[in-house]
Amino acid sequence: MKKNLPWLLWLWISAVIVGAFYYAPLAAKFIGKSSRILYFHVPMAWVSFTAFIAAAVWSVLYLMKGRQERHDRAAAVAIQLGLLFGVLAIVTGSLWARIEWRMWWNWDPRQTSLLISLLFYAAYLALRGAVDDPEKRGRLAAAYALLGIVVTPFLFWVMPRITFSLHPQPVVNADGKVEMDPRIFQVLLASTFAFTALFFWMHNLQCRLQALVARKTDEQE
Amino acid sequence: MSPLASTWAAEVAAVFAKEWRCELRTKVALNTLGLFAVTTLVVASVSLGPLGVSKAQGSALLPVLLWLILLFSVAAGLPRAFVQEEESQTATALRLSATPSALFCGKLLYSLTLVVALEALITPIYVTIMNLQVARPGLLVTALAAGGYGLAAGSTLVAAIIAQARSKGTLFSVLSFPILLPLLILVIELTRNAVLGDPAGMALAQLLLYDASVSIFGLMLFPVVWNP
Amino acid sequence: MTKLHFENVRRRFGRLSVLQGVSGTVLPGEALLVTGPNGSGKSTLLRCLAGILAPDGGRIDYQEDERALDLAERRLRIGYVAPDLAFYSELTVAENLQFFARLRRVSPERGFEVLDRLALPTDRMVGTLSSGMRQRLRWGWALLHRPRLLLLDEPFQNLDAPGEEGTRALLHEHLEQTPGGLAVIANPASLEIDRVTARIDLGR
Lengths: 221, 228, 204
What we know:
The complex is a heterotrimer of chains A (about 220), B (about 230) and C (about 200). Chain A has about 220 residues and is mostly helical. Chain A has helices at about 5-25, 40-65, 70-100, 110-130, 135-160, 170, 180-220. In chain A, helix 1 (about 5-25) runs antiparallel to helix 7 (about 180-220), helix 3 packs parallel to helix 5 (about 135-160) and helix 4 packs antiparallel against helix 5. Chain A starts with a helix and ends with a helix.
């Protein structure tokens, strides 16, 4: 069964893509067919946020459960992927902003929040690069990742509410209510699930690869 | 060795006193902070020209400039609190003598007093030179206090982190700015409210929440950062 | 009873395996002497025992009065002398010792006691001290809080004859008179110290 999970994922993603372009209707307030971007942009931003939460959890595990290398590695890979998906989210978001609001970037609070969180991820990776000793690197990185928790509520909850945002409100689900066509919601949910699964699959692969490389270098010494 | 509350406080006081005693003999941090801030201030006011900015532009722009000056001065002068310990190799003696929480609080208090001194120096000069009319000076002082505290607290922990890494100068800016950005956004808004005479609103509450969070997290994470 | 026991302590730096499983036990009144050429891991071992360096593997158990101390407690309880220990050069000798006395929550008089014992100049800026005086200051700092476990890395380095005599006397006193006093000493060459009950040679 485990071997088939990736295939299942590919199938699911294919279904989402088909659904995004053929099944879901065009959203009312969007220009032309641009609402299709929704099904990719929103999940990517969501995954970027999830990646941070995952990294924070692994950082806690690292610090509290015996400083195991695998937890440190998991946190670092999560941040790397968070950066990747975040960049993709910004790119897709900018494409859409160009269509919808005629500007690539306008310091919309949600855009800005995402950008600040990416700066944070990049800072985390820069910190890792600046420490040679694995033990020190692990705990300094874990501490910094957890310090990011101070910032996260502000970025993801406070900022989008304190200033006027051009982001479409029902779509971004500000009040927790669902005010969109059920088919749009279905595809969006399915896509979010797909992207989250994709994140964890990529994460798993990358962690295993790095563990193998580490073991190989150990054996060579 | 049961730590009594009063002797923990005595440790904090000892660290604070030691920081200031060393600083007053060398004046490195004071000079760095002061010179940096004054230089930036001069550049800003010269660039804006003899006629300055209009009132409308002023309320939008000047709060931002003030906090940028404070931010960059802090980045220039505060990390020294921990970097110096590592570079002069006194950190080992500290690691083996000080209770981590007391050390953190002592250093934080020291950083805080530095920031307050900096703000006390810069703000009057700034307000005067830029011809900034502040409708609610009380709120401005509150903003300076709450914002200054956040700057000090965030910078102290990040300084402790980067002190043990390479390329400390650039790394401090890279690591601290994402952490301090929410603080800056909030405090700039609060400062703007003070200038315009608007109510403090949510910004003050959120700022205080930020200050509390960064203090708690700093205190919890410092032992991990400081000791192997 | 005070007891230090370490087992299979390992540590590497990058590709270099510096400690490859070192073990030992030290009981009150005993001194463990660790010898070996430069780079053999003596300082590394002492740092691990002091708690300022995390070993990659193995265990270090330290107990005082039958109670096992965790890493944080051990760090604050031990006395440590090492060549890279430094103090605040902008403060005087007395100010440095007062500061650390306050941190360690011992009375300030203890600082002066230690100053006298090691014949340290009270009001000299640490930045102006000779290397021999610096070494005496390290001893003074290590003994401030009357530790039971002394970890000494090249303890007589840079000392002149009276300095070495004085500190040897202190070491003997510590091993003989301090209740539960024990020591681990690292030195490139072998040292003539009574009470050395065990040796570890890290030489390759």
